[in-house]
């Protein structure tokens, strides 16, 4: 590889200088306003070199800097390679403005300092585990960070102004903010995905902390600050906290301790919490809760006949973190299939749902509710039944639950001899026989002593009429 060594004073006042191979500055390289230097290969600024960029420096390869006390200048460094780039060397590389547009990514094996504006266009910047830092000097700022362009590793911020740290895990940006600084300070921040260490060790009044993610915030010097953390369930799972109970928390080495704050947002989607003023740093920070979330409650679940079909209604309390409901139907009490799927509102309150099932039935149908939460857990409601309105007037169970017998009312149009069976919830036959209905009125099926409290299913039929009913034995 050819190397271009710049060993003498080179003042670039206007126009541009292009280097196709690797080049080294071991002299005095000054790029004045309006001028530019472009390097397609690697660039080394040696310990004897002096680099002052007041114009534009385009580097598509790696950078190595050994110049101590390097001046930031007033220009812009453009890192725009098409293959992965790295920042190396023994001394921090300083620039006033920075533009990063390398989709292949940039690795900081050396500190990179920005004094003005950092523009994120594409690519993740990863800091080494030494650690090295993406440094934002006092008065600096950035724009354009996102899930596909942020810092995967450590960010250092100097100054006394509010700052949102553009940190993440190379898949999602998961920023954290420091505000209300009372003096010039130096903070180092890193985002950490799950698992949160010692997440079960909480100090009263905390009862839980988020086990899916946390942030490390180290204070090198300076003042107290307030910490703002956020959640976004489209990126990272978040516990089913109650919004009113969310607090900021830090780890004291043994316990997670709450540091106050009031949360805003929607627990099931996104929101944030800002702590009280904090003086304890050099530790981990996380979102916690001072209250338990009440479990989801099915307030009511019922079905009503509408001529030859049914309308099903259900009311849910404490609804949160539910993905969707599946309403399932069975025509025999055993084999269920989905007739409706409805998304949950997840407003942590009481919600009302209904579905009109237009599939015709002649006798009895069974319904149950399948509850699917956001963590892929599934639970079921009790089974309810509904009978066609015209059938219920002629042949029906009078009282349910039952004790020692099943009382059945039969109208004058359904007289005759019936075969019946009673099975348990597993489908095992518990009792069978015949029942003669010679007149309209109430008739009884006496239960054998084998029936213990639980759910059973009664089938009665002849060649003209039938009755199917779920029976609850007290």
Write structural notes for this entry.
Strand 29 (246-251) and strand 30 (256-258) form a beta hairpin. The mean pLDDT is 90. Strands 13, 16, 19, 22, 25, 26, 27, 29, 30 and 33 form a 10-stranded mixed β-sheet that branches. The protein has an 8-stranded parallel β-sheet with strand order 1-4-7-10-12-15-18-21, with no helix packed on it. The chain has a 7-stranded parallel β-sheet with strand order 3-6-9-11-14-17-20, with no helix packed on it. The chain has 3 domains: 3-289; 297-387, Immunoglobulin-like (Sandwich); 393-473, Immunoglobulin-like, CATH 2.60.40.3080. With 474 residues, it is mainly beta. The chain is elongated. It has 1 helix and 48 strands.
Sheet bearing the most strands, described? 10 strands, mixed
Helix content: under 10%
Mean pLDDT: 90
Report the β-strand fraction as a percent range: over 45%
Report the radius of gyration as a whole number of Å.
Answer: 36 Å
Number of DSSP E strands: 48
Structural class: mainly beta
List low-confidence stretches: none
> What is the CA–CA distance across the termini?
90 Å
Q: What spatial form do the alpha-carbon principal axes imply?
A: elongated
Number of helices: 1
Query: How many separate domains?
Result: 3
Task: Chart the SSEs and their pairings.
Layout: E1 3-6, E2 9-12, E3 16-19, E4 22-25, E5 28-31, E6 36-39, E7 43-45, E8 50-53, E9 56-59, E10 63-65, E11 76-79, E12 85-89, E13 93-95, E14 97-101, E15 106-108, E16 112-114, E17 117-122, E18 125-127, E19 134-136, E20 141-143, E21 151-152, E22 154-159, E23 163-165, E24 176-179, E25 185-193, E26 208-209, E27 213-221, E28 226-232, E29 246-251, E30 256-258, E31 262-266, E32 270-274, E33 283-289, E34 297-306, E35 309-317, E36 322-330, E37 336-343, E38 351-357, E39 364-373, E40 378-380, E41 384-387, H1 389-392, E42 395-397, E43 405-410, E44 416-424, E45 429-437, E46 441-446, E47 454-461, E48 466-473
Parallel strand pairs: 1-4, 2-5, 3-6, 4-7, 5-8, 6-9, 7-10, 9-11, 10-12, 11-14, 12-15, 13-16, 14-17, 15-18, 16-19, 17-20, 18-21, 19-22
Antiparallel strand pairs: 22-25, 23-24, 24-28, 25-27, 26-33, 27-33, 28-32, 29-30, 29-33, 31-32, 34-35, 35-38, 36-37, 36-39, 39-40, 39-41, 42-43, 43-46, 44-45, 44-47, 47-48
């Amino acid at each position: 590889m050819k190397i271009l060594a710049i060993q003498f004073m080179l003042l670039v006042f206007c126009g541009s200088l292009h280097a196709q191979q690797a080049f080294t500055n071991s002299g005095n390289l000054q790029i004045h306003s309006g001028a530019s230097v472009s390097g397609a290969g690697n660039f080394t600024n040696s310990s004897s070199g002096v680099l002052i960029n007041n114009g534009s420096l385009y580097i598509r390869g790696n950078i190595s800097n050994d110049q101590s006390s390097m001046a930031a200048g007033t220009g812009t460094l453009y890192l725009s390679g098409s293959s992965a780039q790295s920042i190396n060397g023994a001394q921090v590389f300083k620039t006033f403005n920075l533009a990063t547009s390398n989709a292949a990514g940039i690795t900081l094996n050396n500190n990179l300092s920005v004094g003005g504006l950092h523009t994120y266009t594409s690519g993740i910047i990863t800091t080494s585990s030494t650690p090295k830092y993406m440094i934002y000097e006092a008065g600096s700022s950035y724009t354009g960070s996102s899930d596909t362009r942020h810092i995967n590793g450590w960010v250092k911020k100097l100054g006394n102004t509010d700052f949102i740290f553009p940190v993440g895990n190379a898949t999602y940006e998961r920023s954290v903010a420091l505000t209300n600084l009372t003096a010039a300070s130096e903070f180092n921040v890193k985002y950490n995905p799950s698992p949160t260490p010692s997440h079960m060790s909480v100090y009263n009044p905390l009862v839980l902390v988020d086990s899916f993610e946390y942030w490390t915030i180290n204070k090198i010097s300076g003042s107290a600050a307030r910490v703002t953390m956020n959640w976004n369930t489209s990126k990272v799972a978040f516990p089913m906290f109650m919004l009113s109970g969310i607090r900021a928390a830090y780890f004291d080495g043994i316990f997670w301790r709450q540091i106050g704050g009031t949360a805003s947002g929607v627990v099931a989607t996104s929101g944030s919490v800002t702590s009280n003023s904090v003086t304890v740093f050099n530790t981990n920070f996380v979102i916690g809760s001072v209250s338990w979330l009440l479990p989801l409650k099915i307030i009511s679940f019922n079905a009503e006949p509408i001529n030859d079909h049914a309308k099903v209604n259900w009311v849910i309390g404490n609804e949160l973190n539910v993905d969707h409901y599946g309403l399932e139907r069975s025509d025999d009490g055993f084999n269920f299939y989905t007739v409706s799927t409805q998304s949950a509102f997840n407003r942590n309150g009481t919600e009302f749902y209904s579905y009109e099932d237009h599939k015709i039935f002649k006798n009895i149908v069974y319904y149950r509710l399948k509850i699917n939460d956001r963590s892929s857990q599934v639970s079921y409601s009790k089974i309810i039944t509904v009978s066609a309105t015209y059938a219920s007037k002629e042949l029906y169970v009078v009282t349910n639950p039952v004790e020692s017998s099943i009382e059945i009312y039969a109208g004058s149009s359904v007289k005759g001899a019936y075969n019946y069976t009673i099975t348990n919830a597993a489908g095992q036959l518990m009792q069978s026989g015949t029942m003669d209905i010679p007149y309209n009125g109430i008739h009884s099926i006496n239960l054998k002593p084998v029936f213990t409290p639980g759910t059973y299913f009664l089938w009665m039929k002849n060649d003209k009429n039938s009755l199917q009913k779920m029976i609850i034995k007290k």
